Amino acid sequence: MADVVAALDVRYPPAWAEEWDRVGLVLGEPTTPVRRIACVVDVVPETVDEALAAGAEMIVAHHPLLLRGVSSVAATTYKGRIVHRLIKADVALYVAHTNADVADPGVSDALAARFGLTGLHPLHRPRPGSPADAPGRGIGRIGQLPVPMTLAELTRHAAAVLPVTAWGVRAAGDPGRMVRTLAVSGGSGDGFLAEATAAGVDAFLTADLRHHPAGEHLAAGGPALLDAAHWATERPWLDDLAAHLRDALSVETVVSDLDTDPWTVHAAAPRPDKEPRP
Ligand SMILES: [Zn+2]
Q1: Minimal CA–CA distance to 254: which of 67, 53, 118, 76?
Q2: How much distance in Å is there from the Cα of 232 to the middle of ligand 1?
Q3: Cα 116 from Cα 130, distance rounded (Å)
Q4: From which domain of life does this come (predicted)?
């Protein structure tokens, strides 16, 4: 396992993570042999079930299991139960979060690839002088769509090329607006609205967008917004992660397609006044 940790630490150095983040090896005995690695966005009971059933000795996750101060991992708690199951099964856990977001290639490169974006550059650059600061690195990517399309077309396209979720994709702005330049940011990109505007892109796709910031952003003339499911924007990275692990080490990988987005139901009433029927 020490070799896997070393390889991951090279591609996603923990020093590149945001200060509030908690990344790297969470659980595990470095001398344990690792033959199979499970790649997941979230460490939840269902993805742990998958990893154990697949015979993985290690899980590499995007989201930290333990982010804030922890004073108990008793099995009577939700996260403590997960910790117990992993330790009893001798399964290690490694997290690459904002250090994988900022990396090149990173989480948003895999998202950008789903749209065939070209001429990629970062949306949010690391703080100058910070450990992650280097050309090409940063959170989110900006690129050109292979074929310009309207916002309505792009929204349907996004729903088709992203992993399927109940949430799907919703968009904000003029449905007829032409989109050539697209910014994408895997996960919660709420904080990068001003940077998307400053970059002069036609649209910005991310997750977890909210009423007031989105409305005020559009009222100020900012790019159109596409709000996808958080899991769906980060799941594409798992394929890149798994391919890298197979190439760098002689290990097998399993990639979880279990949708860990909390939203499970979506309904839309017909709105012929806003959206032309197909
Ligand atoms: Zn995320």
Answers
A1: 53
A2: 10
A3: 30
A4: Bacteria
- 3-class secondary structure, 141: strand
CA of 173 to the centre of ligand 1 (A): 24
Contact 108, 101 (CB under 8 A): yes
How far does residue 66's CA lie from ligand 1's centre (Å)?
14
CA dihedral 208, 209, 211, 216 (to 10 degrees): 160
Distance 41 CA to ligand 1 centre (A): 7
pLDDT in tens, 201-242: 999 999 999 999 999 999 999 999 999 999 999 999 999 999
| C-alpha 229 to ligand 1 mean position (Å) | 10
CA distance 179 to 155: 11
